[in-house]
């Protein structure tokens, strides 16, 4: 096969795409499979490798494609997955998995093809800006593919994989938190410029709520008599059910992501006066909203960044407030089991390994304790 005869073109997203025939559909139309790359030469090599390895051999027209399997898998798991999770999986499938693997028949899928695909995503998986995707994101792809093939095997659509799918290792990053000085400065600024944006920040700093939970919080969820905040909802982005809707996704008031996330959080003595003051001066249903509707997490994140800029604090994402809450609780001597329940985690291990950050100050204090054990 000469290079002149290869079907290669440049896509609108900047990537190069090459197509090759793999058979015919029942209606007689030609069935193609695509390969992608950053350069024309890269795609040319992939196409030549596909031809030389016999991947263009005649396929069975009655066999399911990987795209068809993934759609079945999504429908099968719809009742078990939250709307936001289903939306995330669907976006990964449509944007990354289907373009490269979708036209392959199930009998063509093996561990070598899957591992090669995952490796490419790590080095060249970003669609718009180029470069590789994060190990965490690629691990999610690997989970989807492995789970879908396991489902197909259980339903006897195909044989199980004979080899292992290798998921990329996660690089554990040092969690970022606000220093005590930054937290004090931020709280002072909020108290002197009191508004709903600042109140949400205080709620997360002293109750550990996620940003979606803060945006969904209503005054009916805050029981000032019994001193409890009840977490019963979160804001989630899901695919629009109405196909005539101009937008492809929409924000909805959803139940929390897991059963453990449905929880009651005691109102601390630090937070109580601020909630009481705002309750008397704000009449809106949603705690951090200045209108009748909830604030989207993206909008609230933007407003939080503006708040940080106004008070001269480093730019961090909103979730850092939750990390800060967890760390301050540990520093104050709270037991991890109680903290895990306050954060809405399903087990204590998540709290220890993911969210609780031991500050340098804390490490120094612990090391100084060795001084007391020295023998003269």
Jot down its keywords.
376 residues, alpha+beta, hpI Integrase, Chain A, three-stranded antiparallel sheet, 45% helix, elongated
Layout of strands and helices, then pairs:
Elements: E1 7-10, E2 16-24, E3 30-37, H1 40-52, H2 66-77, H3 83-101, H4 111-124, H5 135-154, H6 180-192, H7 196-207, H8 211-216, E4 222-223, E5 228-231, E6 234-239, E7 249-254, E8 263-266, H9 272-281, H10 297-310, H11 319-331, H12 336-343, H13 348-355, H14 360-368
Give an account of the 3D structure.
By secondary structure, the chain is an alpha+beta fold. The chain folds into 3 domains: 1-62, no CATH class; 66-171, Orthogonal Bundle (DNA polymerase, domain 1); 180-366, Orthogonal Bundle (hpI Integrase, Chain A). It contains 14 helices and 8 strands. It has a 3-stranded antiparallel beta sheet. It has a 3-stranded antiparallel beta sheet with strand order 4-5-8, with no helix packed on it. The longest helix has 20 residues, at 135-154. It is elongated, with a radius of gyration of 26 Å. The N and C termini lie far apart (83 Å).
């Amino acid at each position: 096969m000469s290079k002149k005869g290869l079907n290669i073109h440049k896509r609108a997203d900047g990537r190069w795409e090459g197509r090759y025939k793999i058979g015919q559909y029942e209606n007689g139309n030609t069935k193609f499979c695509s390969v992608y790359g950053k350069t024309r030469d890269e795609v040319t090599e992939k196409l030549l490798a596909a031809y030389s390895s016999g991947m263009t051999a005649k396929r069975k027209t009655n066999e399911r494609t990987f795209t068809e399997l993934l759609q079945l898998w999504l429908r099968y798991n719809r009742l078990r997955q939250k709307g936001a999770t289903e939306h995330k999986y669907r976006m990964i499938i449509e944007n990354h998995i289907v373009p490269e693997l979708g036209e392959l028949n199930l009998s063509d899928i093996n561990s070598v093809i899957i591992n090669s695909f995952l490796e490419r995503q790590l080095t060249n998986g970003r669609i718009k800006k180029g470069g590789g995707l994060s190990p965490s994101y690629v691990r999610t792809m690997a989970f989807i593919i492995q789970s879908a093939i396991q489902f197909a095997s259980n339903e006897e659509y195909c044989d199980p994989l004979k080899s292992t799918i290798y998921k990329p290792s996660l690089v554990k990053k040092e969690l970022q938190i606000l220093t005590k000085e930054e937290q004090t400065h931020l709280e002072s600024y909020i108290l002197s410029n009191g508004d709903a944006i600042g109140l949400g920040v205080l709620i997360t700093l002293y109750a550990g709520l996620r940003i979606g939970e803060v945006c969904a919080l209503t005054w009916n969820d805050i029981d000032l008599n019994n001193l409890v905040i009840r977490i019963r909802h979160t804001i989630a982005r899901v695919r629009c059910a109405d196909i005539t809707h101009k937008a492809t996704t929409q924000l909805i008031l959803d139940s929390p992501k897991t059963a453990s996330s449905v929880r009651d959080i005691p109102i601390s003595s630090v937070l109580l006066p601020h909630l009481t003051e705002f309750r008397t001066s704000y009449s809106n249903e949603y705690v951090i909203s200045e209108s009748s509707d909830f604030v989207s997490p993206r909008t609230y994140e933007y407003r939080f960044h503006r708040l940080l800029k106004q008070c001269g604090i480093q730019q961090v994402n909103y979730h850092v407030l939750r990390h800060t809450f967890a760390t301050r609780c540990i520093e104050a001597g709270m037991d991890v089991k109680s903290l895990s329940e306050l954060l809405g985690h399903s087990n204590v291990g998540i709290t220890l390994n993911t969210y609780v950050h031991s500050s340098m100050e804390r490490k120094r204090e612990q090391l100084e304790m060795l001084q007391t054990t020295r023998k003269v």
